[in-house]
Specification:
- The protein is mostly helical and 462 residues long.
- 79% of the residues lie in helices and 0% in strands.
- It has 24 helices and no strands.
- The longest helix is centred in the middle third of the chain and has 26 residues.
- It is globular.
- It starts with a helix and ends with a helix.
Length: 462
């Protein structure tokens, strides 16, 4: 460890310690102060030492257990294992879909556009990016969209960067539309009691409006590149080559894969009704369906079952989530979030409208520089503490969802989808994104879309 890294780590430890000491001054007991210090250490450590984030949260959990700030039983309860199991099931499904070429097939359908122009291409890639993020997850979606964009732009000898920026931003927007689009969606659903229906009825329409406005901004901001695309397509003639370039015939296995995906989405969509009919606990079917689908896939493709679990399930990320959820749950276990909630309510004069606005913009700004799962996990126990005072906290959950997703568009490091897409671009084109080039677009898109989400959340609260 060189001197610079050591000083950076030491600074993080000192800041975390000072926050814990400050907590004692506002009424925290020693365990509450330790819990808040470890959370801040985990957040800052993840921000500045991303590659070492798992090691940092391992040490954090060990300190919490050693100081008796939380016991093993309550740590396990706080770790949101139901969310982890849901994500494992969905990752297995995604592994199958990748193997069968579902994503290339879907892109080929979208690309079959008559009289292709730059504007039509922008609308197509934005919509497919958003909807595929809604149905699966933002990372899987962006990998295949970026691959398609690179091939198409290579053929026409067009700079792919503007279209990759647009597709990434549309992906982040789309990830707010359903429970499935982003890990924070299932995390919020499991902790708030909101159902897939709630997301579909409330979040999805707002997402569609935001996406339409974002597409309008794209058409204005990138009008020069779009005009160039149209001219190159016109010079090259019809886009029949695209159909040949990205063509996956829907064979039997592909149809079966689509059937499994469709059945999974169908039962997830109706999970609340089924739970009520069978008298099951809230979100039982929601969390069970991906496991059933994953089990069916491993029986069908039994020779690849180990591969799905070992290679397609992101164990590094899931272990980080388990530790992080346990650390944030410790704040609630110790009662620290109750004290913070009372102070926040007093500052906002018990106004839910003001509180939801604060939550939206705080999560938007925070997620522009910090992984949104880390940020949302930190906010969740505070919102849960508001339930003792506020009769309805739904607007706060929607604010956290949209802030966590839309804030990722502001900077190039604000979302996992951003990082993955830019990594592919650097590998394939040896292109390194300039921070301010992204910020010039992201700040405008982020501020406008968050403002629209704010208006939508205000209407939902009426």
């Amino acid at each position: 460890m060189n001197k610079r890294i050591f000083l950076k780590f030491l600074s993080i430890v000192l800041i975390s310690g000072l926050i814990g000491i400050s907590g004692l001054r506002i009424g925290f007991n020693i365990n509450q102060a330790i819990a808040s210090s470890i959370l801040i250490l985990s957040i800052l450590g993840s921000l500045f030492f991303w590659e070492q984030r798992l090691a940092i949260v391992f040490f954090g959990v060990a300190i919490l257990l050693a100081t008796r700030t939380i016991d093993i039983e309550n740590f396990v309860m706080a770790s949101s294992l139901e969310v982890i199991l849901f994500l494992i099931g969905m990752m297995v499904i995604v592994g199958l879909l990748k193997e069968l070429g579902v994503f290339a097939w879907v892109v080929s359908l979208i690309i079959r556009i008559k009289a292709l122009t730059g504007a039509k291409f922008v609308v197509a890639i934005s919509i497919i990016s958003a909807l595929s993020a809604c149905a699966l997850d933002e990372v899987t979606s962006i990998i295949f969209i970026v691959a398609a964009i690179l091939e198409i732009c290579d053929y026409f000898e067009i700079d792919p960067v503007p279209y990759i920026i647009m597709s990434v931003m549309a992906t982040n927007i789309g990830s707010s539309g359903t429970v499935l689009g982003n890990p924070i969606g299932i995390l919020i659903a499991s902790k708030s009691g909101l159902t897939f229906e709630d997301f579909l009825i409330r979040a999805f329409p707002i997402m569609c409006i935001i996406l339409a406005i974002a597409i309008g901004l794209f058409l204005i901001i990138f009008r020069k590149s779009i005009r160039e695309f149209s001219e190159k397509v016109r010079m090259a003639g019809a886009n029949e080559f695209l159909i040949r370039l990205i063509s996956v015939p829907p064979d039997l296995q592909l149809r079966i894969g689509l059937g499994i995906l469709g059945a999974t989405l169908f039962f997830i969509m109706l999970h609340h009704r089924i739970e009520e009919f069978l008298g099951l606990g809230n979100n039982t079917i929601l969390l069970m369906v991906p496991l059933v689908s994953a089990g069916a896939i491993m029986l069908w493709k039994f020779k690849n079952a180990r591969k799905y679990i070992e290679e397609d399930v992101e164990w590094w990320t899931l272990l980080f989530f388990i530790m992080l959820f346990g650390i944030t749950g410790t704040l609630r276990f110790t009662g620290a979030t109750d004290i913070l909630a009372k102070d926040i309510l007093r500052w906002t004069q018990n106004s839910q409208a003001i509180l939801s606005g604060v939550m939206l913009w705080a999560s938007t700004i925070g997620s522009s520089v910090l992984d949104n799962v880390v940020l949302v996990a930190a906010f969740i126990p505070i919102i849960q503490s508001f339930r003792t005072t506020l009769s309805n906290t739904n607007s706060l959950w929607w604010a956290l969802l949209f802030g966590g997703c839309l804030g990722g568009n502001i900077t190039m490091i604000g979302s996992t989808a951003n990082i993955v897409a830019l990594g592919i671009l650097e590998k394939e084109k040896n292109f390194k994104m300039n921070f301010f080039r992204w910020l010039g677009v992201g700040l405008l898109v982020g501020l406008v879309t968050t403002t629209v989400a704010w208006a939508g959340i205000a209407l939902l609260g009426r």
